[in-house]
Amino acid sequence: MLFLLLLACAPSTPFARGCSISPSTTTTPLNTGAVSTPVDEANLAVAKVTAYTADCEGCIGITKDGTVAESHKRILAADPRYYPMGTRVELTFPDGDVEVYTVRDTGGAIKGKGRFDMLVRTERFAMKWGVKRVKFRVLD
């Protein structure tokens, strides 16, 4: 299977956040390690979610708000016009898992209300993730 990658590393900017990776194909959902819990479907919207990693050439591994970019911190990049730094977002993944992420980063391709980029540990995981539609709600 051939993948086309879009890598967005900006080492010349003071807050180069990492490489955004979006393969041209979608894959099956991956288990994110979250716990499935009941969710009030009436209060959910749907977002386009991609994945990025801070482990790339020219990346400094620091988010826009100064946080060290580590996947266990559940970091999201989002459009700050709609989701200010520190906004907590509950994501309901396609496999039913629910996790709370915090907006700590931005990205050039992350524009609009229904667009997030999720920090993950490896480029391989980001490739498998691809682009997915994920249900979400803002918690604060």
Provide tags for this entry.
six-stranded mixed β-barrel; 8 strands; 140 residues; mainly beta; 5% helix; Barwin-like endoglucanases; disordered N terminus
Provide structural commentary:
It is built from one helix and eight strands. A six-stranded mixed β-barrel has the order 3-7-4-6-5-8. The protein starts with 18 loop residues before the first strand and ends with a strand.
Straight-line N-to-C gap: 41 Å
Low-confidence stretches: 1-18, 20-37
Count every helix, treating DSSP H or I runs of 4 or more residues as helices.
1
Radius of gyration: 14 Å
- Name of the CATH homologous superfamily: RlpA-like domain
What is the CATH architecture assignment?
Answer: Beta Barrel
Domains, number:
1
CATH C-level class is Mainly Beta
The best one-word shape is globular
Measured as a percent range, the helix fraction is under 10%
Q: Look at the helices and sheets and give the structural class.
A: mainly beta
Strand order of the largest sheet: 3-7-4-6-5-8
Task: Output mean pLDDT.
Answer: 78
The major sheet is characterized as: 6 strands, mixed, barrel
In percent terms, what proportion of residues is strand? 25-35%
